[in-house]
Amino acid sequence: MFTIKITDLAKQLNAELIGNNNIIIHGITSIYNTKKNYITFLANNKLRFLLSNCKASAIIIDKNNIPFCKITSLVVTNPYLAYILFAKTIYNTLHNNIKISTKAKNIFLGKNVNIGDNVVIEDNVKLGNNVIIGSNCFIGKNVIIKDNTKLFNNVTIHYDTVIGSNCIIQSGTVIGSDGFGYIKDKEKWLKIPHLGRVIINNYVEIGSCTTIDRGTLDDTIINNGVIIDNLCQIAHNVIIGKYTAIAGGVIIAGSSRIGNNCLVGGATVINGHISICDKVTITGMSMVIRSIKKSGIYSSGIPTQQNSKWRKTAVLTMNISKINKRIKVIEQSINK
User: Fold this and answer.
1) H or E segment and range at residue 46
2) CB 316 within 8 A of CB 302
3) Given a cut of 90, is residue 193 above it in pLDDT?
4) What's the CATH architecture for 4-95?
5) How far apart are CA 215 and CA 232, in angstroms?
6) Going by C-beta distance under 8 Å and a sequence separation of 6 or more, which residues neighbour residue 159?
């Protein structure tokens, strides 16, 4: 288990320590899911209301939030950057000295487990009853795969991922890879370490060559009965509700929430940090840029036309603002 003294962390982050200097920190959490022996951070004053119910042992803040904190604080100029620096330390610790071996330590195998050729399994993996692991799969540290789940050949499951029972994961899929998270530091891109997990619940089916990224701090979650087609991208911290179906080529950006019993057509793109309520159908090749709060069928995009007709449609679309102004002038003239 990762541990660091709060005094050592203060030195590492060049922070002012206010409060108990005997705390031992085991990791970092988001401000939404705080817990004892962990540190969190506040980088957005709009979330200050969450401090009243904060269960973390310590928090990273700037000087403006000192009056609002009742727990041990590390005061820095930029809490978000400090969080990234600390998370990077944890991330590097997790990735050091990985021993890749089919004879890893503390592996738990249930009854009737079937493991194909050239499978790599790391330490502390738990495989339930009747699990099937196809050839050339990689199973990272601390992964849990529950009863009756099948992985086809060449599937990669990164560390700390949890996969429920009766799931099917097709070849080439990668679960638990880092999300596309970066912050601009002057001219350079600074990678944000991803310390969350991927949690896949029961009766989930995932097609070939789909990628599901691990969460930044909280988890990426795929709920019961979800079916996902080939070549989909599920970004960090996405939550997909029960029995939702996602067709091929769909891209879901980070921190979006998809409700229960939704249908998402192929090649649809869903913006980050939005919510889609239950029982929504999105037709193929749609672009969802805002939250959807009412059940129903939603579409966007222009259906295919003969090229000559499409060119005329494109011209009209480009000139719609001018056409609108002309209509308003005509309406004003009629009214007079």
Assistant:
1) none
2) no
3) yes
4) 3-Layer(aba) Sandwich (3.40)
5) 17
6) 94, 122, 140, 141, 142, 143, 176
CATH architecture label of 108-298? 3 Solenoid (2.160)
Residue that is written with structure tokens 């409700």 in the block: 259
Instruction: Give CA–CA dist 43/77, Å, rounded.
Output: 10
Q: Average the pLDDT over 135-149 and give the result.
A: 96
Closest CA to 160 of 177, 147, 173: 177
Beta strand extents in 186-240 (DSSP E only): 188-191, 198-200, 205-206, 211-213, 220-222, 227-228, 233-234, 239-240
Look-up of token digits 């988890």:
219
CA 217 and chain centroid, separation: 9
Q: Is the dihedral of CA 199, 201, 203, 204 positive or negative?
A: negative
pTM over 0.90: no
End-to-end CA distance of the chain: 79
Tell which residue, 205, 257, 253, 254, has the closest CA to residue 230.
205
Answer whether 4-95 and 108-298 agree in fold: no
Q: Name the catalytic one among 26, 95, 158, 236.
A: 236
Helix, strand, or coil (residue 264): strand
Q: Where are the domains of the chain?
A: 4-95, 108-298, 309-336
Sheet holding 16-18: strands in order across? 16-18, 72-75, 58-61, 39-41
Query: Cα(7)–Cα(269) distance, rounded to whole angstroms?
Result: 45
Under DSSP, the state recorded for 2 is -
For 81-129, write each residue's pLDDT tens digit: 999 999 988 887 766 544 445 566 789 999 999 998 889 999 899 999 9
Active-site residue flag, 95 = no
